[in-house]
Amino acid sequence: MKLKHVNEKMTLKEIMDMDPSLEPELFKLGFNACCSKMETVEVFAKDKKIDVKKAIEALNAKIDEVNKISELLEDYEQ
Question: How many Å apart are CA 13 and CA 11, to the nearest integer?
Answer without folding.
Answer: 5
